[in-house]
Write a structure and sequence with these properties.
646 residues, alpha/beta, seven-stranded parallel sheet, 24 helices, 44% helix
Length: 646
């Protein structure tokens, strides 16, 4: 067990944290003394284990203490980041820890602990929406780094001996549960289940009166919401956005709504600015008092957690998280008919490439629970994709291939009204093709979250769900390749990589993927790289680093990496001609004009001229005499012929 003090500020970045972890482990290895990790300002100690190192840090002898797992209590620090006010220190430190563990080559499973971040049922309060953000982040981490993932564990506000025993039992349990809460009733595991249709009947009709404040109202989703609000009798719509009347389409939307008899005001306001938002709410005319709030606003990009910066997280969290909290605090004393939060399915299941966005929306879900526990109205809906609307339109094809279908906006709006009328607190509304989604979601490790969905169980029945750490798929692939020739092995693994790349890219056949073209040129981004890596992990049973796609930047080089990891008996000691040519092509692509390029061209000409009719190199003297004899056409003709044989 290792003891390491984390000091305010300096351990919020990956590099110094990775260095300190490696140095502490090296010291532990040298001294052989037990210790523990101590977290600042929390009153908690973090039990750990050993770890390895890379990038020049740690024990130079190459010895590596065994790492069973890492338990992080960093989420308990809810103070704002010193440079990025929308980002809690605990969230920033958790991101840095996940990144630093990779940099330091610590391979134990990472468990993220929170306290009061989730509500497990009636009477159980979600006292910390801020810590709930780590649950959204963790669900995404489980998709991007399944080989490193342990799970999420929510602790009660006060711990007794029974709680501690249950906590230790949950961490040591051999099963697949990865989202648990420790409570007096026992260890509770999270499940996604349907809200039966019969429970949707009845309810109290929602007919908003007075003023309804809508953030992000001039966007695609917000437009559908305000049209329904106007139709249902809202007397005054206060449409809030950062651009106000200057937002694209704002004028046309205002005119359309006013034509229906609704009073409309366009307000320019960043809802993360508490003072400005307070002034705006105070300016609402008394004849149309504030009756409801609908928080639609939000931004988010696509970036893998391993590359996420706090500047990016600040942009994502500011409007969605700070805006929601400001609206919550500034309206607590008002008699609202509804307080609606637009969340995302990214918070429910995680979404590769959207760790900060998942964290932001997990905050909204927990805020709704937080408000309900205090007798305030609140409904948070975690949406799947809407047809032709919002950020999802940019990745609609990719989501559709994974089984996440786009919803008709009229049906989605109807579902929203039903949720408000039935006083739902937090729910997910999405159109899911479970035959496609479940095997993809569970490709890298089992997902107990969806175990109670009948269609998901049927889709997973008979499919391999070995997960990281089990080698059935690896053994099967090794056995298949063992009887092949060197050339056949290479071709089989290249075909495997090519097929998975085609699925990620949405191509109809693997032949549409150029095996020599770099993945980036094929259109891969960080999210697609994660999807390809996860697909290959599921197919091969191997644990692959998150950066494997960009470290081996085309199908041939990635296939060579997989063959090497398989360590097949009888595998060739050296790389094949095709792999060497691919390496050569990658090296030549990085050359600029000048002497280095000229020397490379001369050596290639010499190599081509040195090949005799049997494919053997001629004597060096003969090559030297004919150094300049080959034309560019002959040189590139040779290269084209060789590459075309792959």
């Amino acid at each position: 067990v290792l003891r390491m003090d984390l000091h305010d500020g300096e351990d919020l970045d990956r590099e110094p944290l990775a260095r300190r972890i490696s140095e502490a482990l090296a010291t532990e290895l040298a001294n052989g003394e037990p210790a523990g990790w101590e977290l600042p300002n929390t009153g908690w100690e973090l039990p750990g284990d050993g770890a390895g190192s890379r990038n020049g840090h740690g024990d130079p002898s190459g010895r590596r203490p065994s790492v069973a797992g890492v338990l992080s209590l960093l989420a308990l620090d809810e103070r704002p980041h010193p440079d990025h006010a929308a980002v809690p220190r605990g969230l920033a430190a958790t991101v840095a820890l996940a990144q630093a563990l990779g940099d330091a080559d610590v391979r134990g499973r990472l468990w993220l602990a929170t306290r009061g971040a989730v509500a497990t049922g009636p009477g159980d309060r979600a006292d910390s929406p801020t810590q709930a953000m780590v649950w959204g982040l963790g669900r995404t981490l489980s998709l991007e780094q399944p080989e490193r993932w342990g799970g999420l564990l929510d602790l009660p506000m006060s711990l007794d001996d029974d709680h501690l025993r249950r906590t230790c039992g949950a961490l040591a349990a051999p099963g697949d549960e990865d989202q648990m809460a420790i409570r007096r009733a026992g260890v509770l595991a999270r499940r996604l289940e349907r809200a039966p249709a019969e429970e949707r009947l009845g309810g109290t009709e929602w007919r908003p009166r007075g003023t309804v404040l809508v953030t992000g109202a001039t966007g695609g989703l917000g437009g559908h919401v305000v049209r329904r609000l106007a139709r249902d009798g809202a007397e005054h719509l206060l449409l809030v956005s950062r651009q106000g009347s200057r937002a694209p389409g704002a004028g046309e939307l205002k005119a359309e709504l006013e034509a229906s008899g609704t009073r409309v005001s366009l307000a320019e306001c960043d809802v993360a600015d508490r003072e400005r938002l307070g002034e705006l709410i105070a300016s609402i005319p008394p004849e149309h008092p504030l009756d409801a709030v609908v928080h639609v606003a939000g931004v988010g990009g696509i970036v893998a957690l391993d590359a996420l910066t706090m500047e990016q997280a600040q942009t994502t969290l500011a409007g969605k998280v700070q805006g929601a909290w400001n609206l919550h605090e500034l309206t607590q004393g008002m008699d609202l008919s509804a307080f609606v939060l637009f969340s995302s399915m990214a918070a429910t299941t995680g979404s590769a490439g959207q760790g900060d966005y998942a964290a932001a929306n997990a905050f909204l879900d927990a805020l709704a629970e937080h408000r309900r526990a205090r007798g305030l109205v609140a409904t948070s809906v975690a949406w799947g994709g809407w047809a032709g609307e919002g950020k999802a339109v940019l990745v609609a094809d990719r989501f559709r291939r994974r089984g996440l279908l786009e919803m008709d906006h009229d049906l989605a709006i109807e579902a929203l009204w039903q949720a408000v009328e039935h006083a739902e607190t937090s729910l997910t509304v999405a159109d899911i093709d479970w035959e496609l989604y479940a095997p993809t979601y569970a490709s890298a490790r089992p997902r107990p979250l969806i175990a109670d969905i009948p269609e998901a169980r049927r889709a997973l029945a008979g499919t391999a769900q070995g997960g990281v750490g089990e080698h059935d798929e690896m053994d099967a692939l090794a056995a298949k390749l063992a009887g092949m020739s060197e050339r056949e092995r290479e071709r089989a693994v290249v075909d495997l990589v090519r097929a998975h790349a085609a699925v990620v890219l949405g191509h109809s056949t693997p032949e549409d993927v150029d095996i020599l073209q770099p993945f980036k040129e094929l259109g891969f981004d960080s999210l697609m790289a994660v999807e390809l890596r996860n697909g290959l992990q599921g197919a091969t049973g191997m644990s692959l680093p998150t950066t494997v796609v960009f470290e081996h930047p085309n199908c041939i080089l990635l296939a060579e990496c997989l063959v090497g990891l398989l360590q097949l008996r009888g595998a060739p000691a050296g790389a094949s001609v095709e792999v060497e040519i691919a390496n050569l092509e990658a090296a030549l692509a990085s050359l600029g004009d000048g002497d280095e390029r000229a020397r490379a061209m001369a050596r290639l000409r010499a190599l081509v001229d040195g090949l005799d009719g049997d494919g053997r190199l001629a004597p060096a003297g003969a090559v030297a005499q004919r150094l300049d004899a080959a034309s560019d056409e002959e040189l590139f003709g040779f290269i084209e012929k060789e590459l075309g044989s792959l």
